[in-house]
Amino acid sequence: MHHFWYPRKELYCENVPVGEIIEKFGTPCYIYSLATLERHYQAFDQAFSSVGHLVCYSVKANSNLAILAALARLGAGADIVSGGELYRAIKAGIPASRIVFSGVGKTEAEIEAALKSDILMFNVESLQELELIGQMASRMGKEARVALRINPDVDPQTHPYISTGLRKNKFGLPLDQALEGYRLAREMPGLSPVGVDCHIGSQITELSPFLDALKRVKEFISQLEEEGIKIRYLDLGGGLGIPYRDETPPHPTYYGQALVKELKGLPYTLILEPGRVIVGNAGILVTRVLYTKDTGEKRFVIVDAGMNDLARPSLYGSYHEIVPVRREERETVVVDVVGPICESGDFLARERPLPEVAPGDLLAVMSAGAYGFVMASNYNSRPRPAEVLVKGDQFYLVRERESYDDLIRGEIIPWEDGHA
Ligand code: LLP
Question: Which residues are substrate-binding (predicted)?
Fold first, then answer.
């Protein structure tokens, strides 16, 4: 459910015509609906209301400060994977006591910042990382709360690039090594093993991989308990999928019910790290048609947003619905919607039936709120798009479109003024 709709012929975000936003801020432009975001967060949070839990929104999905601040207001925590995400989360008002730090490659500087902030927990992904965190915490006179990320070797049946819980993936530790890690953590003065962590992948549309993973996690926890290691937090990661096209992922309520059923009576606080399911359908990317051409072989619609603005179609072959901002009686034609980047892989849609369009028309790329702007780049020296947040009948610029000056910020010509 989202708040992008056609009260008449024109696409609205909540109570604002999309065209009005574009008149003010131009294209390409990401537009987010606050009501959708809040609704998704609340539905997810509610789904776990019968057990002790903490929803740590996965900042990587969309890290705009306004989005984070909106979630902070609702009581969300954060799942971060870098010092930059820690900085953002804290700036947006998410308390450090609700922040978990995941990721395979945490640097010393990032670990230090997280220890200084006194975050809730490190989700540790290797024995070397564990030792480093322990040594640094001891040196700083602190005790780091840690969970080891176990790799349950479960196939989430999703795109290989976003599947993480198989033994061949770089994530987490196999169970025997994780056990060794917990023994080590128990002995090291700078470490307090308080949780177990697991994340198997993203855009998962079935419940069974989650339940299989949970089963393995529970078995592993029993093993820990046999050794006298008691944990408090059970972090099950993110990964719940959304409908981009005809997928039918379980509603968060069912996801919640299924997990809660397995956990009833157990004394753990459940941590969840949803990203996509909170913000994915709360955002769209609006782009303008520049040209159309028919090569005899194919019809192309060339738009002003490219793979640098929304990488998902090019990178994963992902499907995003594309709709005209103004609905008119037009013939349907099968087209490739392509961007201005000098690569044949620069497309937003291929072989897509769309109402015929003309230069100047606006198109909305749907479900672009997660892994959209955050994955945008400046490739081909293209300034990154503006981001706008809609609340009822108001709209706010929450990130300015980049300027050409932004593009060259920090670059130095060594033989010019004072640098030679
Ligand atoms: N927790 C961890 C440890 C993760 O690695 C991820 C996502 C999440 C939580 C959030 O997962 P979500 O609920 O959003 O599925 N760029 C890709 C997705 C990469 C996901 C990486 N990890 C895409 O556009 O599909």
Answer: 276, 312, 316, 343, 371
